[in-house]
# Entry
Amino acid sequence: MPDSLNERKERIAKFKKTILNKDDSARSVDIPEGLFVKCEACGNAVYQRVLDQNDGICPNCGYHFKIGARRRIALIVDPGTFFERDAGIASVNPLGMPDYDEKLLAGAKASGMPEAFLSGTAKIAGRPVAIGVLDSAFMMGSMGSAVGEKVTRLIEAATVQRLPLILFSASGGARMQEGILSLMQMAKTSGALSRFRDAGLLYISVLTNPTTGGVAASFASLGDINIAEKSSLIGFAGPRVIKQTIRQELPEGFQTEQFQLKHGAVDLVASRKEMRVLIARLLQFHPEVRA
Amino acid sequence: MNAERPNAAWEKVKLARHPKRPTALALIARLFPDFIELHGDRAFGDDPAVIGGIASFDGRPVTVIAQEKGTNTDDKIHRNFGMPHPEGYRKALRLMLQAERFHRPIVTIIDTPGAYPGIGAEERGQASAIATNLREMMSIKTPVVVIVLGEGGSGGALGIGVGDRVAMFENATYSILSPEGFAAILYKDAEQAPAAASLMKLTAADLFTLHVVDEVMPEGPGLHEDPSTGFVAVQGYLSRALVALSCLPVDRLLSERYIKFRAIGAIVDGENGRSTDENQN
# Structure
């Protein structure tokens, strides 16, 4: 469905608010006490229960709300097959950045996870895979040392175990509180993918809302197959930064999933409802590689 | 914190951006007098913010890739102030793969505020261009030496910054985003950039401590005053690095490059009950 200008504006405003960490409603899908939630795209009030039953998709306009990493895993893998790995890895505050420790605690509380990335092995339609998911409720899914380490360990494990790799990205980019160490996680994760590729294995990257900055400019863009989920902001620089730089209005539909499809950055766009079957079908085209 | 108060990190930021600081072309003229520039990404165009070509160094051919900010107003506009577009990263990769094919070592020179945040850059896949370079540079089968000359601006710098050795000039900076951008987020005020700079660990000395760079090259009075000390230092460094790297078998070169970046970061691993600083491997 084409984006109206208003939808687009609201989404950009939403993205800004979330980046500035002022708004917790990105988690609205998972707030049990809220009876209604306002759709950020069409503005209609949606029953929370209806939204939950609809995989976080607005029943009125089809807008895909953000969902957490555990919810995502549940929507994609065969029930009872997910085994988490590297669950003990968490961030420290290596540069002694003010307020970072508090932000880590708040992120853990908002997401129910010790870090922004959940990873493990699972089966999809019976096929063993290595799977990892970023959770935008944890500090905008930003990549610091812990996320970079977990992503890298997952890629390395998939390489050794000869498993297809599936990564769901939802991230504002590299985590600024860890400075240059976060930046270097881009090289670390991308470098691990070079070895993974050389092993002849399949990597499916799913870019969800939002995928920008240092995550877009590293592992999220490097899939053998890149899938963009509907209702996603995807790009290198954030809309605010681009607007400030070029000092003009951004074109309608800029950095949406359809924009990325049109400009050749992703192979296909899929709704959340069809994602599991799509991934299963793509896996079928890639025979298992024996260890 | 008081934004007016000078601090050491902010002084470095100002020196790294100093209008009289030599740009990449000046360094190339000094280190590689027989440099022949090669243009274009073979797909879209030629990005003037990224220079690439072939030269000789210590009597053997090398490929040189650099970010060029420009020297006067017209030139700076032409060079887009050293902010590359995707075609710049793709040109760099094309020339690096060419170097690999002809067994030439690669020297990259970083000096950029960052990859350009614009509409065309997004349309042509800035994220994908940088990501691809990160992956390919990790596996390119020839030595890669990275020199940070002035500003190392975020992913835009890293896009030509994965190598076997990373050396920084004393007054250069390398950071995840500009101090102004950092301050805008942390303090909601870009004017607090000096305070942000002091928190960010962006100086050459900081990055040496964090194992992100291998060598800090002295500048004497500063490259903006008199580049001779710094240029002698970089010449010597490059000479030693290329000799050392050229002796290594390719598989060892690649595994050491991988480990170098693999080891960067600071985490706690609760499962194994250990806390690690950098170099946890």
Q: What stands out?
A: Chain B is about 40% helix and 20% strand. Chain B touches chain A through 59 residues (CB under 8 Å). Confidence is low (pLDDT under 50) at residues 273-281 of chain B.
